[in-house]
Design brief:
Layout lengths: L5 E7 L2 E9 L39 E6 L2 E5 L1 H7 L6 E9 L8 E9 L5 H14 L1 E9 L2 E10 L2 E7 L8 H5 L9 H13 L12 H14 L19 H21 L15
Parallel strand pairs: 1-5
Antiparallel strand pairs: 1-2, 2-6, 3-4, 5-7, 6-9, 7-8, 8-9
Protein name: Non-homologous end joining protein Ku
Organism: Kribbella speibonae
Pfam family, one: Ku
């Protein structure tokens, strides 16, 4: 079984449910080290005192906040622990909201919540099933690794899922970031054809149908270079569609999408097999 990266209690009303927090995802990553160009010399990073130039051991490093004028307030790790709500062991649900009301923009990262012991499995299951039945999510805050997180707790099949979230003031205003944005298109024919294209390209959400092809290309690049060969990709960079060609491009896209969907329908569907949820890495 995976090791919990955080453990504590979900608190709602007078009920406390002991849980552990586990990673629900892992990213495709290819490790690259840094080298000086033209050599096989690794580049290393050290924690160095900028005044003395000497390396400083990790255990002797503390945090400081710049208050301006070249002054810093030094904060010890113990002081951060003392002000952490619930001593960093509480997922305090403040309210329950309808899942459909939450803008996906607020979601940050997903984790699994698992019951900490078999003696409290019933309370875990009760919360999970009640959330599933009401299509609600609990909104909570908790502290992990010296940082406070806003989070939703929702049901997903047999498991409770925690989504860390951005606070409202962490989400940037698009008008401030992007300037003037286009108003409504106003082009009735173009809009109608764009809607037709979306409908023609619509289908079921099948996560397994999407693969990380870029990572595969990077692996192939490394493998080929290791063999002393060169690898060349001839894909062209996409070009913006000229507004005068938009209607023709939309019409051709709709026809192509409909043909593609028709071909998929003619292909015999594969027999589905039941698979259990994969365990978190």
């Amino acid at each position: 079984m995976a090791r919990a990266i955080w453990s504590g209690y979900i608190n709602f009303g007078l009920v406390s449910v002991p849980v552990g927090l586990y990673s629900a995802t892992h990213e495709h990553e290819i490790d690259f080290h840094q080298f000086q160009k033209g050599t096989s010399d690794r580049i290393r990073y050290k924690r160095v005192n900028e005044r003395t130039g000497r390396e400083v051991p990790y255990e002797k490093i503390v945090k400081g906040h710049d208050v301006g004028g070249g002054e810093y307030v030094i904060v010890e790790p113990e002081e951060l622990d003392d002000i952490a709500p619930g001593k960093s062991r509480s997922l305090e649900i403040d309210t329950f909201v309808d899942l459909d009301e939450i803008d996906p923009m607020h979601f940050q990262k997903s984790y699994y919540l698992g019951p900490k012991d078999s003696g409290n499995a019933s309370s875990y299951a009760l919360l999970r099933d009640a959330l599933a039945k009401t299509n609600r999510a609990g909104i909570a805050k908790f502290v992990m690794r010296g940082k406070e997180y806003l989070a939703t707790i929702r049901a997903d099949g047999k498991v409770l899922v925690l989504e860390t979230m951005f606070f409202a003031d962490e989400i940037r205003d698009p008008d401030e970031e992007l300037g003037d944005l286009p108003r409504k298109s106003g082009a009735g024919k173009q809009l109608s054809m764009a809607v037709d294209l979306i409908e023609a390209m619509s289908g079921e959400w099948k996560p397994a149908s999407y693969q990380d092809t870029y990572t595969e290309r990077v692996k192939e690049l490394v493998k080929t270079k290791h063999q002393g060969k060169e690898i060349v990709y001839s894909e062209e960079e996409p070009q913006a569609t000229n507004p005068t060609d938009l209607v023709a491009a939309l019409r051709a896209s709709v026809e192509e999408a409909r043909k593609s969907r028709g071909a998929r329908k003619k292909t015999p569907a594969k027999k589905k097999t039941s698979r259990g949820r994969k365990k978190a890495a």
